[in-house]
Input
Amino acid sequence: MKILVAGATGAIGKRLVPLLVTGGHHVVATTQTADKLRGLRAAGAEAVLMNGLDRDNVMAVVGSSRPDVVVHQMTALAPMLNPKKFDDELAVTNRLRREGTSHLAAAAIAAGTGRLIAQSYTGWPNQREGGRVKTEADPLDAHPPALMTRTLDAIQALERLVVKTDGLDGIALRYGSLYGPGTALSSEGEIVALVRQRKFPLVGDGAGVWSFVHIEDAAEATVAAIERGRRGIYNIVDDEPAAVADWLPAAAEAFGAKRPWHVPRVLGRLLAGEAATVMMTEVRGASNAKAKRELDWQPRHPSWREGFEELAAA
Output
C-alpha cells in the first residue's frame, strides 16, 4: 500500500515509518522541518514538507500523493507540561487535532483515499466514575478539570471527524501514556529526571489509574490498524493498568531513585494544580481487549513493570 504519514518525525511517527517500509509499503512521510527530510529519506520514505495547519498545503500534498491510507501523527507536544497551564501548553496540538484533522479528512476524501487513521489519547479523558478500567464504549469525562476542558474538546472533535465523517473509513487510536526511548518516561526523559530529583511526588491516595504503552508497541499497533483495523476507536495500551501508588514507587526503584515524597491532596492541589491532582488520584485506565481481538495485536511489553526495568537496564 501507499501510506502517507503526516507528522512522521514525532515520537510514534519516526518508529512507524521504518516498520512500514520494512513491511513493503510505499511511505510518503511529512514533516514541517526541512532539516528532518534527510532522515526520513534514509529510513526509506519519500519525504515531503507539509504544514498540517495550512489547508491548501495539505490538500496539495495528499492530492499529489494519492495514498491508500493517511496516518495522522501530527502533534506539537512540549517535553514536559506545566499542569497549571495544561490547555495553554497544548494549544498547537489541539489546533492540529481540530484543524489538522479536518484538513487531512477533506484531502483524503478529495484524493479518493477515504481511509484515515489518527492519533488520539486514553487515560485522563476517561469518565472518572465507576470501574477503574474503561473500554472504548464507555463515555468520556463529562466534567473534566477546567484547565483540561479545551484539550478534551479537541480530542473529541478529532475522534468525531475521523470516525463519523461520511466517505471516511476512519480509525482513532487512543494511545496510553507513552514510555520508552525518546519519550519523557525513559532513562534520559524529563519524568524520570523529576523522579530522580524527588520532584514527582505521590499525591493523596495515589488511586488514579494510568495505562501505559511502550513506544515500540504503539508503532506496531498502528501498523496493525493500517493493515487490519476497522472503522472505530481502539485503546492502545498494555495489559496492566496501574494506580499511581503502584507504578510511581516502582519507577523510582527501577531507575535507582529514592522513594517519592508523599503529599496530601490539598497540598498537591496547591503546588501542582487541580489537573495534576486529578491525574494522581481520580483518573481511570483503559482496556486493550478490543485492539488485541480485532487487530490481532499483542504488546511485546505486556506490563510497564518489565518495561521500566528494561529501560533502566539499558
